Amino acid sequence: MKNETSEQILDRIFARANVAPMQPIIKQQAIAERIETVCRTPHASIRLLMSCLLGRLIDPKVDPRKPYTEIQGAGCFSGRALDEKFLTDFIIRHQHALF
User: What gap in Å lies between CA 51 and CA 66, rounded to an integer?
Assistant: First the structure.
């Protein structure tokens, strides 16, 4: 939603997922299977994915495939900065439900 802070975006998505955790949100089977594969890997990859998606939700011009400022060029962003600034706190607040 427009003008939401990063914290509000994360909390809104978390609340939506918590309403019916066993009800799939992703309807396309192939996409759901890919997401499940990523989610079954170690936690660092999940944090990277969360940073990329949050970057895109904050700014639609961001390319979620370019989470490193070293890449340079259009669409690049600092996935690490988003992780450190927003995701660490979010994960700590909700770790009982996430892991």
Answer: 11
Opening angle at CA 89, ends 96 and 35, nearest 5? 65
pLDDT digits over 10-61, tens only? 998 888 888 877 777 788 888 888 777 776 766 777 888 889 889 999 999 9
Q: At what angle do helices 6-19 and 88-98 cross, to 10 degrees?
A: 10
Provide the residue ranges of all domains of the chain, joining segments of one domain with +: 6-98
Tokens encoding 89: 């706190």
What's the pTM? 0.62
Assign 89 to helix, strand or coil: helix
